[in-house]
Write a structure and sequence with these properties.
Number of helices of chain A: 6
Oligomer: homodimer
Largest interface: A-B, 39 and 39 residues
Strand content of chain A: 5-15%
Distance between the termini of chain A: 15 Å
Chain lengths: 114, 114
Amino acid sequence: MTATRSAASLDPANCCSPLANEALSEEEAERFASVFAALGDPVRLRLLSLVASADEVCSCNLEGPLARSQPTVSHHTKILAEAGLITGEKRGRWMWWTVVPEQLATIRQLLGGS
Amino acid sequence: MTATRSAASLDPANCCSPLANEALSEEEAERFASVFAALGDPVRLRLLSLVASADEVCSCNLEGPLARSQPTVSHHTKILAEAGLITGEKRGRWMWWTVVPEQLATIRQLLGGS
């Protein structure tokens, strides 16, 4: 299992045995902690749920539901995108965001999911 | 689904619809973000994997694998316990820790697991 878990990718196809199977290496822990840290903020978690519950969401439609300014929305989408949880495409003036279901699956798998 | 998700408990039996189903409320986001924040640290994630991969672990056996002092170990176990991810029992001088599988299941469910 260690061999498959040492893959640099977060692709669920080649990663990871659940953390209950064996202790995480320092490198693995660094990698996953950064994803959890991205989730560890209530505004980002609501933002992720808004993106995940739609096919795609324009940044321009996140200010209202989150009651945050566009620079704050941009700050949080950037962190979620860097964590691999959402991905964006620029169209005209605005970014459009979609969730990355594979990354959610990877985290579920780490937490013991099948 | 809102009714079941508004339950104060993190018991997976009465919580939660996945975040992809609908936007999280502010209260839900606050509650779950604090659990993710507890996971968002590499030392705590390794600590959790050490506890989760054993039946129970004495605090005295965490210093070595984590290469951290006992006060640092205590700091991190406290945060994980407050997040409901581990639970401890004092025996003599030491705390013994076990994982709370229901809390891991709740988080998996939030992230879209079954």
